[in-house]
Design a protein that fits this description.
Chains A, B, C, D: One of its GO terms (molecular function) is nucleotide binding. 4 copies of one chain form a homotetramer. With 384 residues, the first copy, chain A, is of the alpha/beta class. Chain A contains 12 helices and 15 strands. The first copy, chain A, has 2 domains: 10-132, Rossmann fold; 141-314 and 361-380, Dihydrodipicolinate Reductase, domain 2 (2-Layer Sandwich). Chain A starts with 9 loop residues before the first strand and ends with a strand. The mean pLDDT of chain A is 97.
Chain lengths: 384, 384, 384, 384
Amino acid sequence: MSRDVANRRLRAGIVGGGKGSFIGAVHRVAAELDGQAEIIAGAMSTDPQRAEESARSWFLQRSYASYQEMAEQEARRPDGIDFVIIATPNHMHFPVARAFLEQGIHVVSDKPMSLSLEEAREEVALVERSNVIFALTHNYTGYPAVRQARYLVQQGEIGEVRKVIVEYIQDWLMKAEEETGNKQASWRTDPKRSGIAGSVGDIGTHGENLLEFVTGLKIASLSADLTSFVKGRQLDDDANMLLRLENGAKGLLTCSQIAAGEENALSIRVYGTKAGLEWHQMEPNTLLFKQAGKPVQVLRTNQGYMSDESKAASRTPAGHPEGFYEAFANIYKMAIADIRRVESGEKPQGGYPTVYDGLRGMLFITKAVESSQKNAAWVEMKDE
Amino acid sequence: MSRDVANRRLRAGIVGGGKGSFIGAVHRVAAELDGQAEIIAGAMSTDPQRAEESARSWFLQRSYASYQEMAEQEARRPDGIDFVIIATPNHMHFPVARAFLEQGIHVVSDKPMSLSLEEAREEVALVERSNVIFALTHNYTGYPAVRQARYLVQQGEIGEVRKVIVEYIQDWLMKAEEETGNKQASWRTDPKRSGIAGSVGDIGTHGENLLEFVTGLKIASLSADLTSFVKGRQLDDDANMLLRLENGAKGLLTCSQIAAGEENALSIRVYGTKAGLEWHQMEPNTLLFKQAGKPVQVLRTNQGYMSDESKAASRTPAGHPEGFYEAFANIYKMAIADIRRVESGEKPQGGYPTVYDGLRGMLFITKAVESSQKNAAWVEMKDE
Amino acid sequence: MSRDVANRRLRAGIVGGGKGSFIGAVHRVAAELDGQAEIIAGAMSTDPQRAEESARSWFLQRSYASYQEMAEQEARRPDGIDFVIIATPNHMHFPVARAFLEQGIHVVSDKPMSLSLEEAREEVALVERSNVIFALTHNYTGYPAVRQARYLVQQGEIGEVRKVIVEYIQDWLMKAEEETGNKQASWRTDPKRSGIAGSVGDIGTHGENLLEFVTGLKIASLSADLTSFVKGRQLDDDANMLLRLENGAKGLLTCSQIAAGEENALSIRVYGTKAGLEWHQMEPNTLLFKQAGKPVQVLRTNQGYMSDESKAASRTPAGHPEGFYEAFANIYKMAIADIRRVESGEKPQGGYPTVYDGLRGMLFITKAVESSQKNAAWVEMKDE
Amino acid sequence: MSRDVANRRLRAGIVGGGKGSFIGAVHRVAAELDGQAEIIAGAMSTDPQRAEESARSWFLQRSYASYQEMAEQEARRPDGIDFVIIATPNHMHFPVARAFLEQGIHVVSDKPMSLSLEEAREEVALVERSNVIFALTHNYTGYPAVRQARYLVQQGEIGEVRKVIVEYIQDWLMKAEEETGNKQASWRTDPKRSGIAGSVGDIGTHGENLLEFVTGLKIASLSADLTSFVKGRQLDDDANMLLRLENGAKGLLTCSQIAAGEENALSIRVYGTKAGLEWHQMEPNTLLFKQAGKPVQVLRTNQGYMSDESKAASRTPAGHPEGFYEAFANIYKMAIADIRRVESGEKPQGGYPTVYDGLRGMLFITKAVESSQKNAAWVEMKDE
């Protein structure tokens, strides 16, 4: 492929994300926020009427009945889409990605990357064989403060990492929402559409990705205790894990969707031989930097003292809060820049989560479930 | 005017906001965030090259050398803009607004509304004579938690208001930034472009508007002590005020651009005969509700217990932080909805700051400066 | 006087503070906390039975029917008290102090120092003529973080002070508690026992003292707007003030006892040409240090980096919270050390609020009321 | 024993706690804070000179060279001590307790209760055979907000407990302090004086005790991963644990003394089927109550809505912060009240941690170490 993308917004298509979806609108806002792309086509639902209505409410130029049709037709059009956004339940992530990858259309996919580890491996191979940009929306790494946290670790400011505590706790599934017609709840608790894990796949993987992103270290092994607290639920809605990182650091990771009164409490704390770091998604513009024996420093996004990379992820002056959309948009910003580069014959520069992060995520899910089935025995987190 | 706006994004033009402007990009993101409008034309700078470059970087379809030209030509085109965004320094707010108002083009203008109280009065008259939507971006009232605060006051949940404390303090002008080539600082400290007030006009008016919005009460009189702490600065960079509200409540309002270490610390606290309210712009998704003798309640945006109006101003589930852009976009969302209504022959419904808020703001500036010149004597805040 | 105090706890007597008093028990705990003094005698109530019962419940060795009797008898005893604690309503502060001062007995008195400015002047004269230690329990200056704040100002770390914001807001008098038999409320709202001011005397003076303590600057003039919100109340329950400090800095001071939902929210913020400081009494072990352009530093009591003076005011390792009692005890600790010094023929070293702070407090009350009576006209805060 | 304790402060002796000790002074302040007891005798150090100097600096009436001598002599005196305070390193807790228990003297002991599980069992037997009060200073359960947390659980306000997260993290041993002559560090890292665990015994047991106190549930089994991060250190300085409670709830417990930048960060979060609770020791006067679907409530100590038990543990009005000493003093307050009861022939009422809590603590240490030695295998936490 080689499109002329120089003097225009990129054209995007979306699969899924129709009415009733939370994440569809998030992708739209995030993809378009920097004025670098516009969604013009969609296969927004498997239900034709919903697909049509959804497309119309977004003023899309073209609405398709199926993603396959969209992939084929858009690939042929001179004004076809430059990239596709995958905003479906988990089980469709891989088939949809494959359809567009095979047409040479760039992909921005929701996570987890696939339904199974096998699919994930196949997806890696597909992307490696292609010349397309593949970005996975582990959106929380898009926050400027998270970028700064990684930067401080990279600069050696916290010394050698010893201890990591990652939490991602919510309460929205503390009752059997899946039995009340809640679409979001219903696919997430259904193994056929969600995969072998519930909370571990839905939010635990964000924690795992955040941990490996910030520390630059791989989880070497884990001991996981998964629970389904809500009666009749087939997948886990809570998990507690002990972690051992590749450098000998130790850690805890917990995810839960039954933690009463918690909204979307993702946080990470990293402690090294020199200093500690603390970040909370719900107050995302602040990063605590805790040097031993010195006053804790409250680092704030887009202040002059932040790293260039962190500042590049900020759009407003310090004190003008940026949030979930803006972080999500940062993943798009970097992916779109890479699509422009690739289409102009330049080398992509990355910065966003890739197919390899997707593979780690599927490995994490697989190993966590395996460990829990063995009564929380230690399981190595590597792909044999 | 009567355009068919039913099945498309609205078309917007922008005056000002070219390269180097902070607020230009804010307007673009905010105007487009909900997928209901697209900026397609601009007169983005009085410097022709900067205008052209700015327009190109935004992929605008049409770039004009002057706002007058843009007003005339766009009014004539069948595919002309539906509304104009005014993102210039203060002294241009009124002339630009007048040019577009006279062409029957809807206006979204930055604040303060004009350079002088006289202009503000004229602007009110112009809007009243026209059939256009005029929205003023007192963006902080766009926050869902601020909407909830107003709702609780309206519902009588805090009883009769007795005491109000409003702060808007920053530090970015604590040194003579205007002498270092900082464009933002240079026009804001220049009476010709900024008007008779510095911090009082730039941020104090946001405080005044927020106070009257949330309490539903007018400031009856004020006693203001304005200071220019930075040597050589012509306009105030700090102000402390005593307030008396129309119902007998008392208050404090302080604004400052020399408060070392403060970013964009706008906050409001309201105390009534039954309960108190507290909101901080830098943690915007939280509203504290303090009923006497009961536990303080931490109200969080988009939770089920929030008012319909507040929820309508939220886009993400609770715990997924929304920030400055999203609040700004709420002003646009409401204004755009009204533009659609007016163009379809329906009655506008409001909800966003109007030309009357603009008049109050200019009155506030005028009276605060007058009081300070009289050694903080009490001055009534009404337009004789 | 010259007692041998070397190898024993000091002996204290208390006037007031009997059953039903809040502050009596505070004085007992604070005076005894460091094991350097013991309360052994008291004239704890004007009601003989309550006096007796109160003394017994504290296991006091001697209970007196009147403070005059106590002053005379204790002065004569070889094992008489070394100092007296005054924990009565305001109107008794001065007469009781005088009685003990005249016997050469050291005094620790509650604030405000007297009922009127005249009494305060007389008290200053009395103390100056005597050789006794006089300490006034402006206890909030006893907090280690407040000491650190003063230290940073003294070291020039914040530069020249420009702006000060002091708040002391509560809600416990938001209803007519004085009509419900609440003893605390009843004397505080009674001009005969409380003096010419309500909230201004009770808590506003703490704010004034804290401001002058931390900044090392005197308030030059003030413009005060006092209000009695609760019907039938004779004294103010709310006040808003503009301040001008002797160096040209500007400020705000507000005190309120009708701020619904507020407990005991005393705070101070100081902004200079280099940095800002922020401290909240309700989270007393933290001091925010806000250097322009650098990360905010969270200073924590008893960390190694704190000043010697601040560390001397801490008793527990960082992270083991100290509170109201411990700060109060710091006033006693310094006063007791000075009593030991004076009794050993050494020079007192101070550090605690003195009779001169008491005079400033009475001046503040007097001038605030005067300003408010003149519709918040500027009044100089100096003793002509 | 049957002493007349009615009209006097109780007389206490102390073993350990001499100069250089942190906890000695804490016990003194806590024991004496409510004016119900006075320390008059001590065997404050095994070094005779330090013992003597320490006693003198506290103005003690009697100083002993050994605890055995003190136990024997005080038991014989008509004015002997009523209870003994044990403030030694761990290895002396049991022998000292035994010496005084055998003399029928009441005991307030530091934790962990003993050096080994065997000693703990023997101590239980000793106390059961005696008629003395035995209190263990798991001081963190003395906080009013912790009492409220337990109360809410007991009242069913959070429903059935599902998930618990307990943390106790510090940084003071992140370097080899034991090699720098730091006495506190040196005994705590020495198996002979500290026992088989380091951080798990020193602070992990506080976490365990807090968890069982608040939830009213026993830990059924645990999987523990203990680490000694500092080179050459024999005992753990960090631990991560998975927990399973007796009712099927799951949990995490982590303790660390190498968490850079953390002071004394003990916290507990409990999530039930109806609501959650959150408490942080470093902001101890606040308890968050998180009912699903309702605003989070900020419960504050000594507000009218708190439970009677919680209010009984508060001494100051809401907003006047109480801290570490006051919580510690609550353990003493309850224990002293029980000593008075027992001496008056009444039944003790408890409320403070007992010898059975001490046994649980030793069991926790023993099982955590056992689990870790088995590579974090699940180990039941029961005494076979």
